[in-house]
Amino acid sequence: MDDTTTSGKGKGGPWARRTIVAGLIATPVALVAGCSSSGSSGSSDKSGSGGSSAAPVSKAAITTTPANGAKSAVFTQPVKVAVSNGTLSSVTLTGSDGKQVAGELAADKLSWTSTGRLSSGTGYTLAAVGTDSDQVQATKSVSFRTGAPEKTFIGYFTPDNGTTVGVGMPVSINFNKAVTDKAAVQKAITVTASPAVEIVGHWFSSTRLDFRPETYWAAGTKVTLTLALKDVEGSSGVYGTQAKSISFTVGRSQTSVADLSAKTLTVTRDGKVTQTYPITGGSPEHTTWAGKMVISEKFLQTRMDSTTVGLGGEYDIKDVPHAQRLTTSGTFIHGNYWASTSVFGSENTSHGCVAMHDTKGAGDSSTPAAKFYNSSITGDVVEVVNSGDKTVDPANGLNGWNLDWASWKAGSAV
């Protein structure tokens, strides 16, 4: 540690004493009354023309942790200042952003400890003033930089910044490391809406946290997600790195009901039924999950391989048109060009997906599948009823709407 101190130079006659300013309000070193420039210790007049006396040297010696010039100070540990042969008059700790870090002076005025949180990878300057028993001041100026944490985590969020989404789109965050201090992490994440509405977080697992209101968003709502995770300890020794805000807009209100008994898809936009399409759903051997499912991805064409959903080699279609994902596990609402047109509206024959008539190549915009695809955006809700199967797991996709409000709130850590 650098224990070097500099003395103040007295005014008036030799060894004139200072008057200490009452209180402990931080006083910048450059403004200490009557001080000479840092490091000056006075000098004698060698010309013989009257002579002058050297400045008094304070007996107070100030030390700091971390020391001046430290390059990787531990940001989780407090900054400490101590004085011997005197007392501390003031201490200020300032970050590179110009903001002061709070601290506490001991009752005996012999030490000071920071109480505000430091940031990793950040430069700081510290200015301390001490006074000895002769009321001579000593000053200490220290600069240091905090290091970066060795282990970090980040959250991958949905939806993306600047997007327009449907009324059912939750804010979903998936962390790349397991979170054990869920409360600390959740407190560092805020989701707000305009017009305002209560929004609550729900932990589906140690790596997934979703936010939503009690009912679907109102059309036109502006939603802002703020991640203040930098230096938040998500688990022992693992710290967040993100400090950012993103926003998205809720578009028009569109929800659809796939009734697998009637074999129809009824589309409602802004409170009015706009279209009814004939569909086919899961067969009795491969029923479709029931419940509210949010469109999370859209593909003009995509490959569907039964081996990826545990159905062996029953199918492998490389160009399924107008496919929109409803669950992580592989449930889609999509176009179907390989089945007879007589199937739609009359039979449930699929392996669990909901399908509408389409053409190969996804080039015909007049088909039911194309029309529904073109009218949909991610975040729209498709509710499946009368499927003969259980309600989809709320964690399977963006489908937390299948939890009632009390159950949703019970999954919050704050």
UniProtKB/TrEMBL annotation:
Q: Report if keyword Transferase is assigned.
A: yes
Keyword Acyltransferase: yes or no? Answer: yes
Positions of the L,D-TPase catalytic domain: 254-385
Name this polypeptide is given: Ig-like domain-containing protein
Pfam families given in the database record:
Big_10, YkuD
Which pathway does this chain act in? Cell wall biogenesis; peptidoglycan biosynthesis
Which residue ranges are recorded for the region named Disordered?
36-56
Q: Which residues form the active site?
A: 334 (proton donor/acceptor), 353 (nucleophile)
Give the UniProt keywords, A-Z: Acyltransferase, Cell shape, Cell wall biogenesis/degradation, Peptidoglycan synthesis, Transferase
Q: Which Gene3D superfamilies match?
A: 2.60.40.3710, 2.60.40.3780, L,D-transpeptidase catalytic domain-like
> For bias kind Low complexity, which ranges apply?
36-47
Q: Which InterPro entries does this entry report, sorted A to Z?
A: Big_10 (IPR041280), LD-transpeptidase (IPR050979), LD_TPept_cat_dom (IPR005490), Transpep_catalytic_dom (IPR038063)
Q: Which domain of life is it from?
A: Bacteria
- What species is this protein from? Streptacidiphilus cavernicola
CDD domains cross-referenced by the UniProt entry: LDT_IgD_like_2, YkuD_like
